[in-house]
Amino acid sequence: MPVTVTRTTITTTTSSSSGLGSSTIVGSPRALTQPLGLLRLLQLICTCVAFSLVASVGAWTGAMGNWSMFTWCFCFAVTLIILIVELAGLQARFPLSWRNFPITYACYAALFCLSASVIYPTTYVQFLPHGRSRDHAIAATAFSCIACVAYATEVAWTRARPGEITGYMATVPGLLKVLETFVACVIFAFISNPYLYQHQPALEWCVAVYSICFILAAVAILLNLGDCTNVLPIAFPTFLSALALISVLLYATALVLWPLYQFDQKYGGQPRRSMDSGCGKWHTHYVCSWDRRLAVAILTAINLLAYVADLVHSARLVFVRV
């Protein structure tokens, strides 16, 4: 769904079956010589070097190492696909909306590389003995950081500005949807052990909140990527505002209940880290239960702030269909 952003007004245009009202994006070999093309080449090189360095010495043992390796390989592959599509001028044949896909991916890639740049050195690299493997792992971390900056720069360059014709995902609420779903995925990773929440109905409610809000935000993203916003039984702007409001209310309850039942001794929680026997020592590739609970509490607060900002920005946007 192409949109025109004019301050707080978004004008949406729909394309007919005859193609009227749609715009065509033409690819060109010159795409690589443009600033954005050079930036994507930098992303491609950095992610390729990162996973190559790690693969050459087999330095990705454990869940955290596997996550980092997956991140670099995934970002390299998708960035390569984007470059090929633009070089060959295949945007019109791409199955997803090209106005929304590149910036959505760039935002996800920035977050993915940021997570790998933090998780890999803190949970893996510091436990490696000095030598070739450690040197390669440190170098891979450095290239991961450069890739993160490159992807974040692409988001800053291509986000919506007043007067531009763009996709919804390039607007602030669209980018916040990406952040919300990513943070929710990280929360799911930390609560992958049912032991953390199955003993209390209130904590199970929190897990339900994370799941419901993630699904709603993911639906909004997929509808835009597939140019299917017109399939909703209600107007898309109304759906976005309702989604943000519901998510704010649900996350507000989770922000109260999760810390209360995890850290208040009166409700069976553990207020101090020392009370968790599994947190007594540092373990390679392992995050103890108390640290997981704390991480989820912090991420819940971050996502609540994201949903509040989403609600504020969505309320200020006016969609005018033409």
TrEMBL record:
Region (Disordered): 1-23
Bilayer disposition of the protein: Multi-pass membrane protein
Record-level GO cellular component terms: cell-cell junction; plasma membrane
Entry's localization field: Membrane
Record-annotated MARVEL domain positions: 31-163, 168-319
Statement: the UniProt record of this protein carries the keyword Membrane: yes
Chief localisation class: membrane
Keyword terms: Membrane, Repeat, Transmembrane, Transmembrane helix
Transmembrane segments: 38-63, 69-90, 102-125, 137-157, 178-196, 202-223, 235-261, 294-312
Keyword Ribonucleoprotein belongs to the record: no
Coiled-coil regions listed: none
Family note: Belongs to the MAL family.
Descriptive protein name: MARVEL domain-containing protein
